[in-house]
TrEMBL record, chain A:
One of its GO terms (cellular component) is plasma membrane. It comes from the Bacteria. It comes from Actinomadura livida. Keywords: Cell membrane, Membrane, Oxidoreductase, Transmembrane, Transmembrane helix. This is Hydrogenase HycP.
TrEMBL record, chain B:
It is a multi-pass membrane protein. This is Hydrogenase HycQ. GO terms for molecular function: NADH dehydrogenase (ubiquinone) activity; oxidoreductase activity. Residues 126-423 form the NADH:quinone oxidoreductase/Mrp antiporter transmembrane domain. InterPro entries: ComplexI-like_HydComp, NADH_UbQ_OxRdtase, ND/Mrp_TM. GO terms for biological process: ATP synthesis coupled electron transport. PANTHER family: HYDROGENASE-4 COMPONENT F (PTHR42682). GO terms for cellular component: plasma membrane. It is an enzyme of class 1 (oxidoreductase). Keywords: Cell membrane, Membrane, Oxidoreductase, Transmembrane, Transmembrane helix. The keyword DNA-binding does not apply.
């Protein structure tokens, strides 16, 4: 892949990754959040594919296909099933309102640019210059996890964090060793399965998946 | 060949036992498979301790690696898993009798506890930081269902918080691993071994300090969440309070230490790459915050199992403090403290679980005058709590004294003094509750009448012989190691060399 095209494609993919994260912060419709998560998964797969094509790694391109299947199809489908079974389609009033969330997103972006300066300085390249954006996605996911009250939104936040971390891994060193990547994907898949089962149990015993009801254990 | 078998046994034996439970279910014939597997792990740990005390051994194409530190952690896993698994048949029998568990629940319990032990063994045996991470995250997934075992509102709430907070925390550690991998690749560590502990330690001096600093902070915060250290400790009292007692014993006694083991290894790398100051400052902050949180919340604690859980946060804080001090004496004390805490916490949780099962509640004010009604159980509960409070002759007394001495010798006297004051608060809070539970008048006093004193309660308060033996052995080991660390001496010396960075 030629230099100019590579940088453009890379920036497009990273931009889509970030945009999906910000939009997820904006929307309160759970179905939209799940769709945005699928879009983000596709953007991540595209990012990995671009990096693989640029470096001429066939294995990385194959990994991109795996990521596409897992994060743009399997995980969103699981979330969708949990949502349909849960019968709750909208986020209740989140702890932080939408306008403040978007301001917080801007601040988180500034923070990640400040924090990742050493990473860019160690090896300046188009890929490492995108690391701050990927870290912003991690922080946005964490923000969703902390401020949303629906069980499903929390799971989506956790998964966005994970998308961001995977993006950082590929942008810095075209990925971690294969066995680690495999174990990571398996762990994420299982964690979502566990959370899906717990979501249905929460509904069984609490009658709703609003996590504000989860306040019986305290000191 | 022999080495490979010994290295794989601590993972393979529990996995086989888990398969056995999946195929056959938990019944009279298979109930003793769990303790047998735990005994197998302990035996393999002892062999590895002898084998790996002088030099590290690798196996399975370099995937598994055992040095003295690994062997010591495996000993802790085996030594806590054995009493916990010995207690499991009687625990499940009582749950079945009370109608709280079906045969399917018992089968799931068998499979998951064995998977839990296997993934902890894999975490300490892994030669690579990446595989360690995968194994630690696997423990979260496996134990989530054990925490939510009873399917009550409280259990489901605890399981949800546990999975969400621990997974998010451990995701931070993953980000740290990614950045450390980046720094290692730029320090010309070959790709295949860029996350290998031994390689990372050997190349630590050439890691880029600025990137490594971010990575180390994330790793300590992330694995600290799993170790129950502040600020991400909120899941711990809920999860340890709701899990079945033998699982609580494993989670409190070993799982926290396995996460701390990762911090110990990271600190060795951080000290070389960044100098001793960075990791020390970070650890001092989380250590004092953890002990302070534990002391504050123990003051008004009303639940027996939550009390033990907060005591775990306190001890993890003390371990982080010892790690921050970081001298030879302090690190030897930390390693011995891990073992002593595991044993004492296991005994306390098993006794507390029995009390909870026979009285139907773990509220402290519902437990009155236990000493007269259940002398054996009271003895173990009392002795376990005294051991946790740091009374001699138990291990924790010796190790806490050593940490204090090391702290004053390195000019961290202020931190040690603060921790001591907070520990004193803990001691006052716990002993007041302990006196209330164990001593006092017979339960015909007003207030105690609310006790669901059914016929089974009286027999349930007398622990079965196997449980008594398991708790007795745990307590005896804790006391023996406190009086003389002799059988562990060579292993402890070698492991201290590793965590102080003297040998890789």
């Amino acid at each position: 892949m030629s230099g100019g095209l590579y940088v453009h494609a890379l920036d497009m993919a990273v931009g889509a990754l970030l945009l999906a994260g910000v939009l997820a912060l904006w929307r309160r419709d759970l179905a939209a959040i799940v769709r945005l998560f699928a879009v983000q998964g596709a953007a991540l797969a595209a990012l990995v594919a671009v990096l693989g094509l640029h470096e001429g790694h066939a294995a990385t391109v194959a990994l991109a296909a795996g990521i596409l299947v897992l994060r743009a199809a399997v995980l969103p489908l699981m979330l969708r099933r949990a949502m349909l079974a849960g019968g709750a389609f909208r986020e209740t009033e989140p702890l932080v309102n939408v306008a403040s969330s978007l301001v917080a997103a801007a601040l988180l972006a500034l923070l990640s640019f400040a924090v990742t300066r050493p990473v860019v300085e160690l090896a300046p390249s188009p890929a490492t210059r995108a690391v701050p954006v990927a870290l912003t996605v991690v922080l946005l996911g964490f923000f969703v996890l902390v401020t949303r009250r629906r069980a499903l939104s929390q799971v989506a936040g956790f998964l966005m964090m994970d998308n961001g971390i995977t993006a950082v891994a590929f942008l810095t060193t075209t990925g971690v060793p294969f066995i680690v990547e495999l174990g990571m994907s398996l762990d994420v898949l299982l964690a979502v399965l566990v959370l899906q089962i717990l979501t249905s149990r929460i509904r069984d015993v609490f009658g709703d998946s609003d996590l504000d009801d989860l306040r019986e254990l305290h000191d | 060949m022999m080495t490979t078998i010994l290295l794989t046994a601590p993972v393979a034996v529990p996995v086989l036992a888990a398969c056995g439970y999946a195929a056959l279910g938990w019944r009279r014939g298979t109930a003793w498979l769990a303790p047998a597997a735990a005994a197998g792990v302990l035996a393999a740990a002892v062999c590895l301790a002898v084998l790996a005390a002088d030099r590290p051994r690798t196996g399975l194409g370099g995937l598994l690696r055992a040095d003295a530190l690994t062997a010591l952690m495996l000993l802790v896993i085996g030594a806590v898993a054995l009493p916990a698994m010995l207690a499991s048949p009687s625990y499940l029998a009582a749950e079945r009798a009370a109608g709280r568990a079906t045969p399917a629940d018992a089968r799931r319990y068998g499979v998951l506890t064995q998977g839990f032990i296997a993934s902890m063994a894999l975490a300490v045996l892994a030669s690579s930081l990446g595989v360690l991470w995968v194994a630690v995250e696997a423990t979260t997934i496996v134990t989530a269902f054990l925490v939510g075992h009873r399917r009550t509102r409280n259990a489901v709430e605890a399981a949800w918080k546990y999975v969400v907070i621990c997974s998010a925390g451990i995701a931070l550690a993953l980000l740290g691993i990614v950045l450390l991998h980046f720094a290692a690749r730029h320090a010309h560590v070959p790709s295949s071994g860029a996350l290998d502990w031994a390689r990372l330690t050997a190349h630590a001096a050439s890691l880029d300090p600025d990137v490594t600093r971010i990575a180390v902070a994330l790793l300590i915060l992330g694995f600290g969440a799993k170790a129950g250290l502040a600020p991400l400790h909120a899941w711990l009292p809920d999860a340890h309070g709701q899990a079945p007692a033998p699982v609580s014993a494993l989670m409190s006694g070993v799982l926290l230490s396995v996460a701390l083991y990762a911090v110990l290894r990271v600190k060795v790398i951080a000290d070389v790459a960044l100098g001793a100051g960075f990791a020390r400052t970070l650890l001092l902050i989380v250590a004092l915050a953890s002990v302070a949180v534990a002391a504050a919340l123990l003051l008004a604690q009303r639940d027996l199992k939550r009390m033990l859980a907060y005591s775990s946060i306190e001890h993890m804080g003390l371990l982080a403090l010892g790690t921050a001090i970081g001298t030879r004496l302090a690190m030897a004390a930390v390693l011995l403290h891990i073992l002593g805490h595991g044993l004492a916490k296991a005994v306390s949780f098993l006794a507390a679980g029995r009390v909870q099962q026979s009285l139907g509640t773990s509220r402290i004010d519902a437990v009155r005058a236990l000493g007269g009604r259940a002398p054996v159980l009271s003895f173990f509960l009392g002795a376990g709590l005294l051991a946790l409070l740091g009374f001699p002759p138990f291990t924790l007394f010796a190790t806490e004294v050593a940490m204090v001495r090391a702290g004053f010798a390195t000019g961290l006297g202020w931190a040690v003094t603060a921790a001591l004051v907070l520990t004193l608060v803990v001691m006052a809070a716990v002993s007041a509750r302990m006196a209330g539970m164990l001593l006092g008048s017979r339960p015909d006093a007003p207030g105690a009448a609310a006790l669901p004193a059914t016929g089974s309660a009286a027999t349930g308060l007398r622990p079965p012989r196997v449980l008594t033996a398991a708790m007795g052995a745990g307590l005896a080991a804790c006391a023996l190691i406190g009086v003389t660390a002799w059988p562990l001496r060579p292993l402890l010396d070698a492991a201290t060399d590793i965590v102080t960075g003297v040998s890789g």
